[in-house]
Amino acid sequence: MFVGRVEAAKGIFYLIEAFSKLKDYDVQLTIVGGIDTKDKQILKDISENNNIIYEGIKQKSEMNRVYQEADVYIMASLFEGFSLSLFEAMASGIPIIATRNSVADGIIQNYKEGFVIDAASTEDIKEKIIWFYENKDKISTMGKEARKLSEKYTWENYKYNLINQINKV
User: Fold this and answer.
1) pLDDT per 10-residue tile (average), the chain, 169 residues
2) Could you tell me the pTM of the whole model?
């Protein structure tokens, strides 16, 4: 699954292209988030792939269900800071595929909580999706590790770390 603004900066074209190459596999990409209706190319690319489902924008109250229905969370962003959806997915017990150009590069360990891949790499996305497809038995364990990792990033810990950094300055 992908959660976020559905736009080029989020790597959506690479994600869609990767899934268009996975038609021989029983995999589906669920996209949750807003699309600028002026961006006809994204809408066209999604509609042309029968293994991609666009669910649109969801209310916060619906997101727990949305995450629970997913096996893997993908953040294909070309650049990203501290992504809330990444941590929501981890807290939901979902393994991660995320790009190096994000906070994931400093926290996700390959084969433990998920994978960190190169940005703008359709091939990396495809390769990791196939890995999860062929190693379904690892999804639960990696999801539990992702959940455990997310527990380090609570608002209380954030506050504590922020205060410590301010005090150092």
Assistant:
1) 96 97 96 88 91 96 96 97 93 98 95 98 98 98 97 86 88
2) 0.91
